[in-house]
Write a structure and sequence with these properties.
heterodimer, A: mainly alpha, globular, B: 1 helix
């Protein structure tokens, strides 16, 4: 999300500053089965991205003010949405119709289909096309990622007031940023993209659970724990 | 909490190594 102009908004500046550097995929070489190799590489990447995401969440202004129970609930509900904002962002500029999970892990439709991820491919291309058409800025992308986590509608909320303040802080930051650009409709448009993001994340979670159960694809402990929370 | 122990450990910034 590198950007030459430092946002004057404190929250967005912090989000830009703490946005983790993109991870590279470690190519799995434990099998000769190409589609299984793709899946294992992807799952390893996801597991490491999750670890980074948890560290990142702690740096979102307001997140550490939530109770530990609520921090856990938000991450358990919203982790896939937050990760997919990153995938959609990276895939915007991709040549052809690839999904860019990492700089060295770009999957086209045929590769996704072979790996059992045809459904996910379609949903993620739809999301990517939407953000590309909106010409999302780096400030918007990092804020949307934080908003997705804050708005993840966890089942049980320990301290609703703190959560509301956390959400309001991010919402205000986005509104202030868009007002400074004289873009009065952008905040609403971005928030209106959240249902598609939720739907895409649900499909992604189902796809990985299905692969784990039906094809017995082994998953790392953290990824499995987070999928189980779904 | 027991079921989600890795997440719990990571959020608590545990200094003990986390088995991922």
């Amino acid at each position: 999300y590198s950007h030459p102009v430092i946002s004057r908004n404190r929250v967005i500046s912090q989000l830009l500053l703490t946005e983790p550097a993109p991870l590279a995929a470690n190519q799995d070489d434990s099998t000769n089965d190409g589609s299984l190799r793709t899946l294992l590489t992807l799952c390893d990447l996801l597991n490491r991205e999750l670890l980074v995401l948890i560290g990142w969440a702690k740096q979102i202004p307001g997140f550490s003010g939530l109770s530990l129970v609520d921090q856990m609930s938000l991450l358990q509900s919203g982790w896939m949405e937050a990760l997919l904002v990153g995938v959609a962002w990276r895939s915007q500029g991709a040549a052809g119709e690839e999904l860019v999970f990492a700089g060295n892990l770009r999957l086209d439709e045929a590769q996704c289909r072979a790996a059992g991820l045809a459904d996910l491919y379609e949903a993620l291309r739809h999301l990517t096309a939407k953000y590309k058409a909106m010409n999302l800025s780096p400030e918007e992308a990092v804020t949307l990622k934080a908003v997705a986590l804050a708005n993840s509608d966890a089942d049980q909320v320990d301290c609703p007031d703190s959560l509301q303040r956390f959400q309001d802080g991010l919402h205000e930051a986005l509104q202030e940023y868009e007002a400074s650009r004289r873009e009065q409709h952008r905040t609403g448009r971005l928030l209106m993209s959240l249902p598609l993001l939720r739907q895409t994340a649900d499909r992604a979670v189902q796809a990985f659970l299905r692969l784990h159960r039906r094809r017995c694809v082994p998953l790392h402990k953290l990824l499995l724990e987070m999928l189980d929370a779904k | 909490k027991e079921k989600h122990k890795i997440l719990h450990q990571l959020l608590q910034n545990s200094t003990s190594p986390v088995d991922l």
